[in-house]
From TrEMBL:
Gene3D superfamilies: Immunoglobulins. PROSITE patterns: IG_LIKE (PS50835). Residues 33-123 form the Ig-like domain. InterPro entries: Ig-like_dom, Ig-like_dom_sf, Ig-like_fold, Ig_I-set, Ig_sub, Ig_sub2. The lineage of its organism: Eukaryota, Metazoa, Chordata, Craniata, Vertebrata. The gene is LOC103911449. It comes from the Eukaryota. This is Receptor-type tyrosine-protein phosphatase delta-like. The keyword Transmembrane helix does not apply. The keyword Signal applies. Residues 1-29 form the signal peptide. Pfam families: I-set. Keywords: Immunoglobulin domain, Signal.
Length: 134
């Protein structure tokens, strides 16, 4: 919610114009993050790839971070690709490993006004074993 601003006009015309200009410049509409796109639950196969998309708007522009089990993702198999316009990112996991990668993942969008999060579940199936012939 925007912070209410109060403008006071001084007797001098010059001061009044400067103050009114300053008040107009200060009344920017800051807003907390709001999701435009949230990640969807996925089922992948061991050795495969999973990609989750998260996008948010807000003013100032929210920063997006990804967590796994409450901790920021950090591993060579976890790649975070940011959108060119900075409005979101993709979490890419490759190669998928079971049961290590099976978890709840969280996209957190935050700015100076607020924070919001969305969770998603990744299920990883074991690869198929060789078929026996008779």
């Amino acid at each position: 919610m925007p912070v209410p601003r109060v403008c006071v006009a001084l007797p001098s015309v010059r001061h009044t114009v400067l103050l009114l200009t300053a008040c107009v410049l200060l009344t920017c509409a800051e807003s907390p993050p709001k999701f435009l796109r949230t990640p969807s639950d996925q089922t992948g196969v061991q050795g495969g790839v999973a990609s989750f998309i998260c996008q948010a708007s807000g003013d100032p522009r929210p920063k997006i971070v990804w967590n796994k089990k409450g901790k920021r993702v950090s591993n060579q198999r976890f790649e975070v690709i940011e959108f060119d316009d900075g409005s979101g990112s993709v979490l890419r996991i490759q190669p998928l490993r079971t049961p290590r990668d099976e978890a709840i993942y969280e996209c957190v969008a935050s700015n100076s006004v607020g924070e919001t999060s969305a969770t998603t579940r990744l299920t990883v199936l074991r690869g198929t074993s060789a078929v026996k012939t008779h």
